[in-house]
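User:
I study polymers; will you set down one protein's sequence and backbone structure tokens?

Assistant:
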Amino acid sequence: MNRKLSESRSISTSLLEKLKAGEGDAASRFVQLFTPLVYSWCRKAGLNATDSADVAQEVFRAVMNSVGGFSRSDRDRSTFMGWLWTITKSKLSDHRARREKQPQAIGGTTAHARIEEVPEPEWDDSISSQHQSVRVVVQQALKMIRPEFQEKTWQAFWLVRMEEQDPADVAARLEMQRNAVYKASTRVLKRLRQILGESLGEDWDIDETPA
């Protein structure tokens, strides 16, 4: 499978606008969608599970307070994921500073070094093993929507869209009409696009098997 999903299309203008306006469930959807990613960044920086969860909460509070100022035209914040990483790195530094003020804190210098060692991401490239963070977001979106669909519908989507199996073979395997397989897979894909916000286009990729 050789498909691509650019980060710039994975976070929609509509989601950002709803987040800025405080509309509907935009905030809760955003937090649910990005919690695994921010948490993984914190763990990669050397924080334990509890501290990672605490810093993630600080990150989301900061996002809600400053999202109104986010603009794709801002040269230093050209992508939403890059902007989110900037906020996370700032909160990681704040966390380190607080810990270093505590006499009993151990490994402050090491923690700082690990934070600084976290590489600056390149969010414009395609999903690949080098861009695991983008993959985390899309996989989380899949987990969010899976309970909404019956097993056969989900399997039709996964086999056709993710594993790129022939719809006729999938129809035979699932004992469905070929047209029904197409409609089922399209329903799930449409919902995935809604969660991620903007149309993913024809080219996208996730290579994790369904749970």
